[in-house]
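fyi for ur records
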Amino acid sequence: MNITELTQSRMVNAKQITQLLGVSISTLEQHMKKRGFPKPVTPAGCKRLWSLKAVEGWIEQKQEAA
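which gave:
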């Protein structure tokens, strides 16, 4: 999956985020707890989803801080 495909959907799930970041689910959980990763939304009866725009903003912040 590439960024163009993700951008078209605008909402991404945990698996897509781990692929985008190249991290495991447990690392994603750590980012959520300790590193200010965007909070997911959970539509009724659905898995957690994140706004791709919010995730991209978080990535940009981390890159600028490095």
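The chain has one domain: 3-65. thats all i got for now
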